[in-house]
TrEMBL record:
Residues 21-172 form the N-acetyltransferase domain. It comes from Paenibacillus illinoisensis. PANTHER family: RIBOSOMAL N-ACETYLTRANSFERASE YDAF-RELATED, RIBOSOMAL-PROTEIN-SERINE ACETYLTRANSFERASE. GO terms for molecular function: acyltransferase activity. It holds the Pfam family Acetyltransf_3. This is GNAT family N-acetyltransferase. Keywords: Acyltransferase, Transferase. InterPro entries: Acyl_CoA_acyltransferase, GNAT_dom, Ribosomal_N-acetyltransferase. Its EC number is 2.3.-.-. The keyword 4Fe-4S does not apply.
Length: 180
């Protein structure tokens, strides 16, 4: 599946150990931007902190249990997209993503998710894909809304984020929705 060409400018590919420093630089340069919504950012204080994480990502992919992959735009690492745990019995997964502040507003994540949904529904034969976003993270919420996901509702105070609780909005797309 990888590298996965989204279009002429965007490639999704698994993060390799030799790309650890580039990934750390991306996180570090966008630390304040990402930290607003992602708790794990504070846990990545050096490139070496990524070594066990990259190994875990590799194992998850080998076990057909999702993936965490880099997003390259015009050859530059600008973010990541992930399929969290795949529930093969129920044919369900969830998508997570982040993007460098400098790469926002170009439709990169929207294009990646749109292309990825074709694979998830038509090749992997999954039935349901979920995206969850903090209710106040409007930029992140626009993505599933733009792609046509259905807003299933809000889980009140479902995530502790640094010093407060965030409501979480759950969006879903079914294979039947996608293939209409």
């Amino acid at each position: 599946m990888f590298p996965f060409q989204v279009n002429e400018s965007i490639v999704i590919n698994l993060i390799q150990p030799q790309e650890r420093d580039a990934l750390y630089t991306l996180i570090d340069e966008n630390r304040m931007h990402l930290r607003e919504w992602l708790l794990w950012v504070d846990k990545r204080q050096s490139p070496e902190d990524l070594d066990p994480v990259i190994e875990m990502w590799k194992q998850n992919y080998e076990d057909q249990n999702g993936f965490d992959a880099g997003l390259w735009f015009d050859g530059k690492l600008v973010g990541m997209i992930a399929l969290h745990y795949i529930d093969w019995k129920n044919k369900v997964t969830s998508i997570g993503y982040f993007l460098a502040a400098s790469a926002e507003g170009q439709g990169i994540i929207t294009k990646c998710i749109t292309r990825l949904l074709d694979v998830l529904f038509n090749e992997m034969k999954l039935n349901r894909v979920i995206i969850q976003c903090a209710e106040t993270n409007l930029r992140s919420r626009w993505i599933p809304e733009r792609v046509g996901f259905i807003n299933e509702g809000i889980s009140r105070e479902a995530q502790w984020l640094h010093d407060h609780y965030e409501n979480i909005v759950t969006y879903s797309m079914l294979s039947s929705d996608w293939n209409r």
